[in-house]
Amino acid sequence: MTVAEMLSTGNQPQRTCIGCRKKGPRSQLLRLVAEGSGSTAVLVDERRRMAGRGAWLHPSASCLALAIKRRAFGRALEGATGTAAVEHRITSGPNVDAAPVAATPTVQPESGSEI
To answer: Taking burial as the number of CB atoms within 10 A of a residue's CB, which of 10, 25, 32, 72 is the most buried?
Structure first.
């Protein structure tokens, strides 16, 4: 890591991507967790607060493809292999749940025209 990279990341914790195996600041990677209760699904932990062991992945299609090819999900999250939620999150962007709200301009009457 260069001095410039250290200054730009500050004191942020470093995590390793399970796809490309490169380290990066925690804020630039997605945290993934196994759903649990017998399921093999992998979930994206947007708030980074879900219980259980986490794995980290760059939010890029290339890192996702590498992680699937290397079977990294099953090793990092003990048998979890269902990556549909992760694939959906990466292909559709960060704000999937937030529907775009059409901004309607608020028109206020001119002074003296209120009747």
So the answer is: 32
